[in-house]
Amino acid sequence: MIAVGGSDSHCVPPAPMTQPNGPGEPCTWAYVEGPLTREAVLQAVEAGHVFLSEAPNGPYVDFRASADGMHALAGDLLQVEDGATVRFHAKYRGPDGKHLRYFCKRGLVREITAPTEDFDDEFELRLEGDDYLRLEVRGFRGRPERGEVVHAMTNPIYWGRW
Predict the structure, then answer these.
(1) Mean pLDDT, residues 25-41
(2) Among the CATH numbers 1.10.490.10, 2.60.130.10, 2.60.40.10, 3.30.300.130, which is that of 59-159?
(3) pLDDT tens column, 100-129
(4) Per the omega criterion (within 30 degrees of 0), is the bond before 59 cis?
(5) For residue 80, what are the CA distances in angstroms to 28, 71, 72, 102, 142?
(6) Which of 35, 44, 77, 161 has CA atoms 20 to 30 A from the CA of 50?
(7) Domain extents for the chain?
(8) Is the CA virtual torsion 5, 71, 135, 61 positive or negative?
């Protein structure tokens, strides 16, 4: 299952906005290597090499993993031995004070608050069984009494015998 986002805006500029979200809100970002072609974008989406952001101007999240010379992007299956230690790396570009929350099957694994607008988070995790890790960026927007919203999220990085 691959997460993508898309807008359903009926107010395209120059028409006056009557909805809270405009075109491209939310926005799907695709990791494309090489020339930016329609086929390359569709391949990235099919592989799950995408993340979602609330708008075309961000926030931006790059989520990767590495172990024993192997590298994985969001959407990839990382084939490692049970009990292996994997290094996860997230690049966050957006407003400071947002919460980076990492989730697996069991729930919340790690939470850290971005201290700056340009923040890299790296940590190691011992992997057991078939599981995944995905990242959400959450924080307040507008009225705090309504609670936090998801500003960005990644597809999972999987491991095990999927």
Answers:
(1) 92
(2) 2.60.40.10
(3) 999 999 999 999 999 999 999 999 999 988
(4) yes
(5) 29, 11, 11, 20, 43
(6) 161
(7) 59-159
(8) negative
